[in-house]
Design brief:
single chain; 159 residues; alpha+beta; Aminopeptidase; 4 helices
Length: 159
């Protein structure tokens, strides 16, 4: 059974382990490197800092942490999906789609979501596009390309 809960400091080590496995697996499979990921992916201290700055959720499968979701409230109905990750052993089971549906339902006031993903991560790009996110631009930094996405939510009057 898949559930979602807010993280606590006691979760930081487990979240770090899952993130490290997830991003290092991506680095090996798609980047030709042994290790690699976004800033802080392999640092317990970073996990603790993000718990203070954003809304950090753990993805649980039968009570075990298998992933995480980080959301930032940018104000005025705008939210950023700062990071979503899922242990490689739990990918391709629909859990990522459930996680995105959970997040969008948890923030009914959201009018706009933004996120970015590496240019080489075509699998991620397909995933976000399948969920209604639209590519809005590419950003380049230090030889790396990020693809930026946006999803606008239109609400029916009275909802």
């Amino acid at each position: 059974m898949i559930t979602f809960e807010r993280t606590t400091p006691a979760d930081a080590a487990a979240l770090t382990g899952v993130q490290t496995r997830t991003f290092d697996d991506d680095a090996r499979r798609f980047g030709g490197q042994d290790r690699g990921g976004p800033p802080g992916y392999d640092d317990v201290g970073w996990q603790l800092q993000i718990m203070q700055r954003g809304h950090y959720y753990k993805i649980l499968c039968d009570g075990q942490i298998v992933g995480g979701i980080i959301v930032f409230n940018l104000g005025r109905g705008h939210y950023e999906l700062g990071r979503i990750y899922l242990d490689p052993d739990y990918q391709d089971r629909g859990i990522g789609t459930q996680a995105m549906q959970f997040i969008e339902a948890a923030y009914p006031q959201a009018a706009r979501w933004i996120l970015d993903t590496p240019g080489w991560a075509t699998r991620n790009q397909h995933f976000y596009e399948k969920l209604g996110y639209v590519r809005v631009r590419e950003e380049r930094s230090g030889g790396e390309v990020s693809i930026c996405y946006e999803k606008r939510i239109s609400r029916q009057p009275g909802r």
